[in-house]
Every structure is written in structure tokens, then in C-alpha cells.
Amino acid sequence: MDPAGGCPHADNARLLAENAVAEVVLPGDVRGMAVLGHEALKEFLAHPDVAKDAEHFTALREGGIPDGWPLRTFATVRGMTTADADDHRRLRSLVSKAFSARRVEALRPRVEALTAELLDDLAAAAAAGDGIADLRTHFALPLPMRVICELLGVDEVHQDRLHHLSNRVVSTSIGPEEAVAANREMAEVLAAVTAGRAERPGDDLTSALIAAREEDGDRLDPQELIGTLILMVIAGHETTLNLITNAVRALCAHRDQLDLVRSGKADWPDVVEETLRWDSPVSYFPFRYPTRDLTLDGTRIPKGTPVLAGYSAAGRDLAAYGPDATLFRVTRQARNLSLGHGAHYCLGAPLARMEATIALDRLFTRFPALDLAVPEAELPRHASFVGNSVGRLPVRLTG
């Protein structure tokens, strides 16, 4: 795996042409595997003999993974994404109320108000920049970041720092010392947040999690609380940030598909679903571990192997989506796996979909001639093979 990331689609196509499961070498010469095919990935994500708890990660358990390994946080952070069975159900039940359909719908007016405010900021940035502004910085990032932080009760003063640290935590290209420092600082920032919420509880998820811990000490220990917040901050904004960014890139490159939405032949939720499939915001997500030797699509995956979920590859699998799988078609109406499958399906999926739908609708309504200000090939890629997007998105708002 290239620690610097890059566009995954050419490599995905090459690997899928050979098999739905591939052997990979992770940073630090750690041997692993990746599940790439749609049906194979769907089976793997819901398989009863596949675990998330790092106690099943053989190399880690045997001392073969250093503390500064860039991907170590994905394996060892305490929270829903690294818990199984009863522990997973316990942690998920504590958080799920914040992402119920009713609670998400109640957030709609706030998301709409933030979107309008950020579009004003985007216009101001473009006016100050000869008509060009970075849409990722001024719009696609602050919208989900502010929503998830308000949901968690994180004060605005922490938000820029948490985004920077999130980028460091999910990066696959930084060194051991940087990785350790980023994880430590993120935990420290969120410990300060929890201390503040403990002193001044509010109508937010962090306060609710603290209350649950105090009412029943067995329900959430301090490490699980911080680990849950780390995961919520990262997953709560990075995925939606990439989703909005990738959708804008796709529509600018496929004006005919944008015209279908404007003519009423497709709608904005269709755009969101096709973007999730065609250019998944997450490329390869770490980790799952077979609890016994598995054979998947004819390939043996040894017990205890760290396995990546290849969402970007599965989205363009010809076997699942037909010979036009590599084409961006907003009328496709095909299911995708980009927000997970099975017990660990993304709790925030309804919120991410709502945010992206509102953002794209309002963006292209206000700026119908919006287009990329530089060729797609010149956009710098996200420095990770976990996240799948570009590092900035300069756009021109008017033709």
C-alpha cells in the first residue's frame, strides 16, 4: 500500500481483474490483505468469524507492531469500531440515540442555516481571491465539522485543531513520532472537552455519555469515552468532507449528469448515492481480523491477519455493477457498501447523507456555473490510502 495515498481506481481495477481478495504490504512491512470485490466484501463485513477487537491481530498480540506504527490507532483505540459482540452493542446503544431518524431530522434546520452561512463565506473568499476559492476549506470541511462538534458539545475553539489532528491520525504517510504525538494530543484535547462537559453538562452527546458512565460505572470507562469521541470526530466529519468534495468534482467533470438533476430526471440523493459508489470517501478502511482461517472467493485469509475493507474498489466492481461500473451515472440507483454493512454499519450514515444532499443542492442552486479552477489532474491527493479525496478543491463560482 502506498502510504502517500493517491487515486486508488487504477490499482483497484488491476487487482480486481485478478481476484476479489488481494495480499497487501502495509506501512512498516506489515503483511495484510484487502477485500476488494463487492460481494466478497459484503460477505466479509457480516461474517460471524471476523472480529474487530485487536486481541485477534496476531502480529500486534505477539509484539510485532511498534507503538509508532501509523495505523496502530485504528487497531487499538477503545470504541465501537474496535469492539465486538456485547461490548459493541453496549457502546453502540449509548451513541445510537443521537443518530436516530428523529434526531437527525431535527438537525435539518441547523444544517440548512450553516450551509447558507458557509456559502456566504465561500462567496467572500472567492471575491478576495480573483473569483477562485478553495471549496474544501471554506465549505465542505466546516459544514460537517461544525455539525458533529455541536452534536458532541465541542466548543468552536477546538475545531480547527481537531481537524488537523484527525488528518494526522488517519494519515498513513507520517513517521512514528508524529503518529504518537497526534494521537496523544487528540486524546488530550478531547479529555479537556469531557472535563468541561462534566462541569457544565449540556444537551449534547458528550454530556449524555458522561451521565451514562456516572449512572452505571460499568457502561463506559474513561478510555472508552475518549476513544468514542475520537472516532466520532474523525468519522463524523472526514467522511462527509470527502463525500461533498468528491461529488462536486464528479459533477464538474460530468455536466450532463448535473443537467439530469436540474431537469428533474434525478435528484440530489441520487447524486450522493452514486458518489458513494463511484468515488467512495473511504478507500481502504482498517481493520478486521478472521478468528479462524477463512476462504473468501477462493482465497485463504489466515487467522489473525489485519484486513482492509476496500470500499473504493467494491464501488467499481464490474461483477456487481456491470460493464459501465466505471461511469458516473446519477440515475443508476444501485446500492453500495461505502458506509459499511452488517453490525458495524455507520451510525452516522443518515446524517452524512442529509448534510451532503443539502450542501450540494444549495451550492449548485446559488452558483449554477460553479466549476473547477484547475484541471482535475492537478489536484493534490489526500495523503492516505484510508481517505479517498483531494487535499484542496479550487473552484470558480461564476462562468
From TrEMBL:
It comes from the Bacteria. Gene3D superfamilies: Cytochrome P450. InterPro entries: Cyt_P450, Cyt_P450_B, Cyt_P450_sf. Pfam families: p450 (PF00067). SUPFAM superfamilies: Cytochrome P450. CDD domains: CYP107-like. PANTHER family: CYTOCHROME P450 YJIB-RELATED (PTHR46696:SF1), P450, PUTATIVE (EUROFUNG)-RELATED (PTHR46696). Belongs to the cytochrome P450 family. This is Cytochrome P450. It comes from Streptomyces lasiicapitis.
